[in-house]
């Protein structure tokens, strides 16, 4: 029998105006002064707002300012800055229930599925994900609607002013997280699905006490920051497991490490078992994890510990759990109007590290077993390109083609770096071209596929930084930030190796 739930909304009072003084704030927190660890090397970008030009209240100006704050901020790892910023805004995350999602791969898709399921069960649902594809506003959504430029402008200005006044050296991701938490409170959401940016234990999102934690998978990525072994990375991500808060873990997580953390904090743990179909279809695995998360929410509701219940008998909820966000094995076909040219199949996938590339190859093999492949690939310079390319080439033969491109982003690997990652054996497995522009690479691949004598599948993969240009080349009309904003974003989001080595790097995830 289908479940029918009345939407229970908690009352919301007026949000406080954030004009607290430094001395008052310190007294309230029991501080005599800011700790030396929290002091920035120089003032963060927010402090520069005091002498900002006349257009300093515009969306574009504030977004450029946000992308530049990492130039002025060098703080030690920890949650102190985020806790202080959150407290200064009256702890908005306490106003709604939260599902907290971490993992090496799959966390964005699982977050998307859970949010859609909650929305279709009648809840006003916030979703926070990163990074974005085309537009910064994609990161913060309520019931699928992106935060508006006006809303970004208003709340970002508040955050800059408070962080400058209280001398909180917040980073890009800390400010973005605060923007999301505050926006959701202003929108009076019932619940939020909150995706971590990087890791878990020290991620900016880890200041919350959720109704449920979810860890999707553990793989080798961000090893310079999270550790050089799968076990070290697992311990970092297990840091989101909170006392007495149930946690759902996917089949690709080291269960012993997850169980150890859960036992130490008395958190009920549910492990999603591996099923054969997961080997060939990562969406099936992500759906199973999201569904189990919804089951656990329902159990908490029955125990009176949560207001969130998901109608798993509803076909609308079932379809939500099976859906995919953009660029996650996104398959479509293109053909020019009034043309006799061959229809071209396109696959867009943000697979950007070796485990994700391996899963992509498995799914391509299953979905297109007889078709010729034409890849458009680019990578981030900090990824294990050699291993990723090796995995990709297992699907290729001498008739397949790989268009190597450079993402229009400073973190994008140069064509020279990609060449170094290509093994001597790999050079003979497929045909290669090297194109400096993603847009040109996509257009060349589509044109060649149209002229082919056999059906070809054009696969764009390797980095999220390829996707905006690829979608534009394919004719998508979507919200996008201006070239000026993107230029500043690319220039200042990468982390200098010197700061990593010195131990002064704060988590600032952009991929």
Automatic annotation (TrEMBL):
CC per GO annotation: cytosol; mitochondrion
Family stated for the protein in its record: Belongs to the folylpolyglutamate synthase family.
SUPFAM superfamilies on file: MurD-like peptide ligases, catalytic domain, MurD-like peptide ligases, peptide-binding domain
InterPro entries: Folylpolyglutamate_synth, Folylpolyglutamate_synth_CS, Mur-like_cat_sf, Mur_ligase_C, Mur_ligase_C_dom_sf, Mur_ligase_cen
Record has Membrane as a keyword: no
Domain Mur ligase C-terminal, first and last residues per copy: 341-463
GO molecular function: ATP binding; dihydrofolate synthase activity; metal ion binding; tetrahydrofolylpolyglutamate synthase activity
Keywords: ATP-binding, Ligase, Magnesium, Metal-binding, Nucleotide-binding
Transmembrane helix in keyword set: no
PANTHER family from the UniProt entry: DIHYDROFOLATE SYNTHETASE-RELATED, FOLYLPOLYGLUTAMATE SYNTHASE-RELATED
UniProt-listed PROSITE patterns: FOLYLPOLYGLU_SYNT_2
Source superkingdom: Eukaryota
Domain Mur ligase central: 101-272
Designated name of the protein: Mur ligase central domain-containing protein
């Amino acid at each position: 029998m289908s479940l029918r739930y009345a939407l229970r909304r908690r009352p919301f009072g007026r949000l406080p105006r954030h004009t607290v003084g430094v001395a008052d704030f310190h007294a309230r927190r029991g501080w005599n002064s800011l700790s030396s660890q929290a002091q920035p090397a120089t003032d963060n970008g927010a402090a520069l707002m005091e002498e900002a030009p006349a257009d300093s209240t515009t969306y574009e100006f504030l977004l450029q300012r946000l992308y530049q704050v990492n130039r002025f901020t060098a703080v030690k790892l920890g949650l102190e800055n985020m806790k202080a910023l959150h407290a200064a805004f009256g702890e908005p995350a306490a106003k709604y229930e939260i599902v907290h999602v971490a993992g090496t791969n799959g966390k964005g898709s699982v977050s998307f599925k859970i949010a859609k399921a909650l929305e279709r069960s009648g809840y006003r649902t916030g979703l926070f994900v990163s990074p974005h594809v085309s537009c910064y506003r994609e990161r913060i959504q309520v019931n699928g609607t992106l935060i508006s430029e006006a809303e970004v402008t208003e709340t970002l200005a508040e955050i800059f002013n408070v962080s400058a006044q209280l001398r909180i050296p917040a980073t890009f991701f800390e400010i973005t997280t605060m923007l999301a938490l505050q926006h959701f409170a202003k929108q009076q959401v019932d619940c939020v699905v909150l995706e971590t940016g990087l890791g878990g234990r020290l991620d900016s999102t880890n200041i919350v006490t959720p109704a449920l934690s979810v860890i999707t998978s553990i793989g080798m990525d961000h090893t310079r920051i999270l550790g050089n072994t799968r076990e070290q990375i697992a311990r970092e991500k297990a840091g989101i497991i909170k006392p007495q808060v149930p946690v759902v873990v996917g089949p690709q997580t080291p269960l012993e490490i997850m169980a150890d953390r859960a036992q130490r904090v008395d958190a009920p743990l549910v492990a999603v078992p591996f099923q054969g179909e997961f080997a060939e279809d990562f969406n099936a695995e992500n759906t199973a994890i999201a569904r189990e998360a919804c089951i656990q929410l329902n159990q908490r509701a029955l125990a009176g510990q949560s207001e969130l219940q998901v109608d798993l008998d509803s076909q609308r909820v079932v379809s939500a759990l099976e859906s995919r966000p953009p660029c996650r094995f996104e398959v479509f076909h293109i053909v020019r109007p009034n043309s006799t040219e061959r229809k071209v199949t396109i696959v867009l996938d943000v697979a950007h590290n070796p485990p994700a590339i391996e899963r992509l190859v498995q799914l391509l093999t299953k979905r297109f077993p007889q078709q010729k492949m034409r890849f458009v690939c680019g990578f981030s310079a900090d990824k294990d390109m050699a291993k990723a390319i090796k995995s990709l080439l297992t699907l290729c033969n001498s008739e397949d083609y790989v268009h190597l491109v450079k993402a229009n982003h400073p973190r994008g690997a140069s064509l020279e770096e990609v060449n170094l990652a290509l093994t001597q054996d790999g050079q003979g497995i497929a045909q290669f071209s090297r194109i400096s522009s993603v847009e040109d690479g996509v257009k060349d691949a589509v044109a060649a596929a149209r002229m082919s004598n056999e059906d070809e599948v054009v696969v764009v993969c390797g980095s999220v930084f390829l996707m905006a240009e690829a979608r534009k080349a394919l004719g998508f009309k979507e919200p996008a930030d201006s070239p000026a904003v993107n230029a500043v974003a690319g220039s200042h989001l990468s982390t200098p190796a010197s700061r990593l080595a010195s131990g002064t790097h704060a988590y600032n995830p952009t991929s």
